[in-house]
Amino acid sequence: MTKTLEQALLIYESVSCLSDLETRALGIYNALDGLMGEEDIASIASAENEYLRGRYSAKSVGTKMSQAGYYKLIRQITLVDGENAYQETKRDGSKVLKHYFFRYCGLNALEWDERNASNRVYKRLQQNIEVDPTHQIETGYKLLQSPNPWEIGAGLIAVSGRRPHEIVARAKFTPVEGEEYQVQFEGQGKKRGEEPVFPISLLVPVDEFLKAFKKFRANPDLKTILKTARKEASGDIPKQNRIIDKLSNKRLNRVVKAEFEEILPPRNEVEDRLEDEEADINNTALKSAYLAIATKRDCSGSPARQMLFASKLAGHFIDVDPDDQKRLKKIDRELQHLVTTLGYMSYHIKGEVPFFQPQKTTVPSNQLSRTRLLPEDRKQLDEWEELWGMPNQAETMHKVFELARIALTIQSQPTEQKEQETESMDNPSLSQLEQKFEAYQQQTEEKFNQLLKLLQNPQTTETSTIPEVQQPKPERKLTPKQPSRDWACVSKAELFGEGEYKAPVKGTGATSERVRRAIEAIMAWNDQFPSESNRDRKWSINIRAVRDLAGVNNQAVKDFIESHPLLVSDHNIKHGIDNQYHNRCHKAEGKTSTDLIREDVYPLIR
Questions:
Q1: Are residues 145 and 280 part of one domain?
Q2: What is the tens place of the pLDDT at every residue in 156-215?
Q3: In a shared domain, residues 131 and 74
Q4: Are residue 289 and residue 141 in the same domain, yes or no?
Q5: Tens digits of per-residue pLDDT, 259-311?
Q6: CA-to-CA distance for 539 and 523, rounded, in angstroms?
Q7: Domain count across the chain
Q8: What is the distance between the alpha carbons of residues 417 and 410, in angstroms, rounded to a whole number?
Q9: Model-wide pTM > 0.85
Q10: Which residues contact 214 (CB under 8 A, 6 or more apart)?
Q11: Domain span at residue 591?
């Protein structure tokens, strides 16, 4: 049905005041469907183009229009060459019919080229960013134990590598018989029309993961999010997933940023990040680290085999049943999806990856039944509790019973041996029997003496063996290494590697001195401004800022700050810059935060 311009404008005006792009896209489709004439179409398309460019940068316009459905909807309009469409020449010389809307709204050919011209993944893959797997896994497990549901959610992502909308709404996990660190996963996102089920590795034991997952899914907020997504996009699963991500990503990323910022180094420089990326330490970074850790732990062999394994974990490559010969013959074409996995593989695992086992917790003392003790026994039990470092009397009594069982086993052994040997002897003389009996008595006394020593210094032993009591080694008091030089007197050029010095000087204490001078310089920079003003010019003293300024590793800065906590916190509080995200205020086009702090503060280092 043909529309007039007045009818089309009336429809467009009904959505032009709305900010929801999907509603606007649907309104524009209804306005343009049946509208003919390039000039009339251009009036609506140009107005929408002006709105989009006023709200988003050229880098984001194309992505936002695609996500909102502009392209999908308008391509459903029947095209008539010269009436509502034009012939566009493609790169290969062929022509394609396109609606006039795309001539006046969205990115032009040059802007598309600039948008798609990126080397961010290539630059990321050139790096060799180390991650400590133990620290990553332990932090993920700690979050699983949290009472905060969004911290649990971040922990689930960290140890399973799943996407937020999968964890929040789609995922189903089934234990695999005989496997302690593997589950069958169902609910893969970005697989339209497919419902793959495949095994994935977990970085924590299955029972711990499933217990936390069940607790997370019981959160009422999740049910509200899913209900909202279903209401806004009934029957459209991909759109529902985007809504779920929109409603949950910020809360999850806030936890990830707070808990993993010091564990996961950034993968992208600031200028390489997308406009809507809050930070590089986010759910995607967790997935990237998970793939590297799980692959290192569970897959050995060639780099190609490890790459394929990581792609299967990520769900980018879905394996086929070996009996399905028809699909198996075509599987090579699916290997192109390994390129997607390649974009995640920027982390390098430092050291071996452990099969994490949580420490066994003792039963809280208020949940234990009481046992009556004689006063003298209670006093002895208290002494042993202190001596052995036990958490409560119940654990101390458990150890006493364990040692008593060992003692009884030791005591019974000579008697049994004596009876066996007596039966095997043919009329032995009484003196020989007495000698053997005395020997057995001596053995028993020696073993009871061992037991007494054991009570004073218990060792873990099997009840079927005689405990060997080792004398405790005298404690060695570790004295910190003395600085190899008086670093306070070393010049800045030599300490930081300037001018004739090709690299920073090395030696015990040099790194600590670089950290000290960097912090001193940040303080000097901040102190040039009044304490209650110019906060956007000041630098908060934190691990990343000092690391970037001093050119040292995170641990060196962390050690120094932990040993001078009041010095740092008092300064930050004094200037009102103690928020951990404060340094985000330092932004400049084409420059990283590292560039900016070195421009501002580095000259003040003495």
A1: yes
A2: 999 999 999 999 998 999 999 889 999 999 988 766 556 788 999 999 999 999 999 999
A3: no
A4: yes
A5: 887 777 665 544 444 444 444 678 888 888 899 899 999 988 888 888 888 88
A6: 8
A7: 4
A8: 12
A9: no
A10: none
A11: 487-604
